[in-house]
Write a structure and sequence with these properties.
By secondary structure, the protein is of the alpha+beta class. The chain folds into three domains: about 80 residues, 2-Layer Sandwich (Double Stranded RNA Binding Domain), CATH 3.30.160; about 100 residues, PmbA/TldD fold (2-Layer Sandwich), CATH 3.30.2290.10; about 200 residues, no CATH class. About 25% of the residues lie in helices and about 35% in strands. The protein is built from nine helices and 17 strands. The strands form three sheets. The chain has a six-stranded antiparallel β-sheet with strand order 3-2-1-4-5-6. It has a five-stranded mixed barrel with strand order 7-12-13-14-17. Strands 10-9-8-11-16 form a five-stranded mixed β-sheet, with helices on one face. Strand 1 and strand 2 form a beta hairpin. Helix 3 runs parallel beside helix 4. The longest helix has 19 residues. It is globular, with a radius of gyration of 24 Å.
């Protein structure tokens, strides 16, 4: 626990109440980030930023406001809080805005989530440049004479956060992150310029793939798009590559929030306890994964984190309901949003699955798209590889899949064994049958 930050937050809560607040919650965040990117064998961007911000949630006479400042001098904060209370009194009354009942903030797990890399302090500017240069060089070499441009970027940072509330809540978190991204543009026939990328984000530096691996993968993903074209509209199986599953699943996930349900913008509002996908679809929200990018001990309301099975064998079990919308819906709160989302891995690799499917499309990217949270209708552009007998035969692009989420997830027939571990959405590749892919 950072004693100085904790004492300041406690002082802010006390001062806000003296100024006339009925209740108060304070977040104090301290962040440092560094970014180094390379292009054409030289640095393109070098950035470093350090910020401190204090966010105050003020409750006065049934009214609520959320205000922030970066001026942490006590004299300035005293005036800021007095003005915040005065401004809050002028707002419309909202009886649902309160701090959580303290019982929901109790029983916090006493575990080390390993979110801070002890080696971060020794990560030097030279290390950052070497990482970015190695990614760029590997991508250029693997791309060969097809390369138009390569950008390689390294970003890292550390953060500390303290949260204190007048209902007795106190919380502290500290973490680090490392992100590595390589992106390549290639020259295809005519004026076509396919673009591919590869990335990884981790809490600990030692868990990052090698920069050479990231660079080579970016080149491979780009070259796999060479010669891409439409094929005729066809109903066939598809495999959505692991790191792209979250893009499509996001439209489904948006309907799982209490906010969407209360505002009558969720196609899942009345589906709890019902099958919303095939038996292969299980979704777990797990805040306790060591070194997980979404791991936490409490949510933004201070509500104690719990591991929850959100969807089990296709059946919808839970929603993401924060304190405010739990009061409006008269439901029990669960969590204000996901932590680490996990679809449990299957048994087989993608290549083996492809052989059994015969003819299908391996989707390696999405373009544009939309999803209606009220109806569940969704449409999105795709890029990838048409395969036959397990072997790629043609890159595809400028094609589209459209369906309704309540129908589409029932078409899930298998889950691969390759969860993507460099995201808070730890999804493996997913296999669907009888999907209409629109083209020519």
């Amino acid at each position: 626990m950072n004693k100085e930050m904790l004492e300041l937050c406690a002082w802010v809560v006390k001062t806000a109440k003296v100024a006339g607040a009925d209740a108060c919650m304070v977040n104090l965040d301290s962040n440092r980030s560094v970014e180094v990117s390379y292009r054409d064998h030289r640095p393109e961007n070098i950035k470093e930023a350090s910020t401190k911000a204090l966010i105050v949630r003020v409750f006065v006479n049934g009214r609520y406001s959320n205000q922030s400042t970066s001026d942490l001098r006590k004299d300035a904060l005293r005036d800021f809080l007095a003005n915040a209370v005065v401004a809050t009194r002028l707002l419309a009354e909202d009886p649902y805005r309160t701090l959580p009942d303290p019982k929901y903030c109790q029983g916090r797990a006493e575990v080390d989530l390993e979110l801070a890399d002890a080696a971060y302090a020794s990560f030097t500017p030279e290390n950052r440049h070497e990482l970015a240069k190695a990614m760029e060089n590997a991508c250029l070499q693997a791309g060969g004479d097809k390369v138009i441009s390569v950008t390689a970027q390294e970003e890292d940072g550390n953060q500390e956060s303290v949260m204190v509330a007048s209902n007795g809540f106190e919380g502290y978190s500290r973490g680090t992150y490392y992100a590595a991204v390589a992106q390549m543009t290639a020259q295809d026939a005519g004026d076509r310029r396919p673009n591919g990328y590869s990335y990884a984000v981790t809490v600990c530096r030692r868990d990052l793939p090698s920069p050479e691996e990231i660079g080579v993968q970016a080149a491979r993903r780009t070259l796999d798009l060479m010669g891409a074209k439409k094929i005729k509209t066809e109903t066939l199986p598809i495999i959505i590559e692991n790191q792209n599953v979250g893009r499509l699943f996001g439209g489904f996930l948006g309907a799982m929030f209490g906010r969407s349900i209360q505002q009558k913008r969720s196609f899942l509002a009345d589906k709890k306890g019902q099958a919303v996908g095939s038996r292969h679809l299980t979704l777990v929200d797990d805040p306790f994964i060591p070194k997980g990018l979404g791991s936490r001990l409490y949510d933004n309301d201070g509500i104690t984190a719990q591991k929850r099975v959100m969807i089990e064998a296709g059946v919808l079990k839970e929603f993401f309901v924060d304190w405010y919308y739990s009061r409006k819906l008269e439901w029990e709160p669960t969590a204000g949003g996901p932590s680490n989302l996990v679809i449990p891995a299957g048994q087989r690799p993608v290549k083996e699955i492809m052989k059994d499917l015969g003819r299908g499309i391996l989707i390696s990217g999405f373009i544009g798209g939309n999803s209606n949270p009220t109806t569940g209708d969704a449409s999105i552009g795709i890029t990838g590889q048409l395969f036959e007998n397990g072997e790629p035969v043609q890159a595809v692009a400028e094609m589209n899949i459209a369906d309704n989420h309540l129908k589409f997830w029932h078409k899930l027939i298998e889950v691969a064994n390759d969860p993507f571990l460099y995201s808070s959405s730890r999804f493996p590749s997913l296999v669907f049958e009888n999907v209409v892919v629109s083209g020519v």
